[in-house]
Design a protein that fits this description.
heterodimer, A: 176 residues, alpha+beta, Ubiquitin Conjugating Enzyme, four-stranded antiparallel sheet, 12% strand, globular, B: 144 residues, Herpes Virus-1, three-stranded antiparallel sheet, two-stranded antiparallel ribbon
Chain lengths: 176, 144
């Protein structure tokens, strides 16, 4: 990856990433992220809010507020998701973690915010999007029957890489 | 994205594009399919999530990639005719424009040639239905 550009340096200083005139100079992943950002702002899925200003300033890192769905164990709770995109997006999956003070207590969510969800690594497809990832995570939380951490939480959190995509995940439990 | 489709150092890459170049810089207007990410050396994906510059591939990986390029070439291409069923390339999320070069997968999902070829070099599955393309190719040979 000799010429892997640092995405943040691509951001023009004068115009925001949401400015459509920037489309002329932006490349593949920027264009697609701008489109996704627009549609997420216009028609967000229920309980999902994107920090559009932050994402507009730095397209490679988005913060998304997620409300626990009504009628689930997470009703009334608020979570923050962080999405990081590489210039290979959407061919490479985004790096998605829970951040902030409230990390959902869930059998597939580690206390450091890492999420064990196959579409974030080996089952990723470029037809997926920020919106579909958010919906999958909402649905993963909603189907939870008992709030508890993964059984290997303390070991994993001590030994894992900062980037959850570096983890060799074992996906075995589709029930929650 | 890894620029596995263009690069002066690897002449076999032209195979992927077919004999007639699907697009040149003059025909790509601002809203057309976007240009691939530029890398100095072509990078290949011997298996998903494993990327290596062309110079660091094992012989086995080179064979696998050459086979993959050959298979991709067997997938039909065309130009977008305004068909209402496929309005948008879900990879770049840009609406097809008349005469955009497109590739049809055996599952009948359609993408910009440039978008889907880049993905198929990483994973030989349809992004929309996850159908393995090689299995579907074989089935289509058997039924025809």
């Amino acid at each position: 990856m000799a010429t892997k550009k640092k995405p943040s340096s691509d951001q023009g200083s004068s115009s925001s990433a949401l400015d459509s005139s920037r489309w002329e100079v932006s490349c593949f992943w920027e264009r697609r992220l701008q489109k996704e950002l627009m549609s997420l702002m216009k028609e967000p899925p229920p309980g999902v809010t994107v920090d559009a200003e932050g994402a507009g300033q730095n397209l490679t890192q988005w913060i998304i507020q997620m409300d626990g769905a009504q009628g689930t164990l997470y009703e009334g709770e608020q979570f923050q998701l962080q999405f990081k995109f590489s210039p290979k997006y959407p061919f490479d999956s985004p790096e998605v973690t829970f951040i902030g003070p409230n990390i959902p207590v869930h059998p597939h969510v580690y206390s450091n915010g890492h999420i064990c969800l196959s579409i974030l690594t080996e089952d990723w497809s470029p037809a997926l999007s920020v919106q579909s990832v958010c919906l999958s995570i909402v649905s993963m939380l909603s189907s939870c029957k008992e709030k508890k951490r993964p059984p290997d939480n303390s070991f994993y959190v001590k030994t894992c890489n900062k980037n959850p995509k570096k983890t060799k995940w074992w996906y075995h439990d589709d029930s929650v | 994205m890894g620029n596995c489709l263009k690069g002066s150092t690897a002449d076999d890459i032209s195979l992927l594009r077919g004999s007639d170049s699907t697009r040149d810089s003059s025909s790509s207007d601002q809203l057309g399919p976007p240009p691939p990410y530029q890398e100095s050396l072509p990078v290949y994906y011997p298996s998903p999530n494993v990327s290596r510059p062309v110079t660091q591939l094992t012989e086995e990986e080179q064979v696998k990639i050459a086979k993959r390029i050959g298979l991709i070439q067997h997938l039909p291409t065309g130009t977008y005719d305004g068909c209402k069923k496929n309005r948008e390339c879900v990879i770049c999320m840009i609406e097809f424009m008349i005469n955009d070069p497109v590739r049809y997968l055996p599952c009948m999902h359609t993408y910009h040639v440039e978008c889907i070829d880049d993905w198929l070099m990483r994973s030989f599955t349809c992004p929309s239905c996850m159908e393995p393309v090689d299995a579907a190719l074989l089935t289509s040979y058997e039924t025809n």
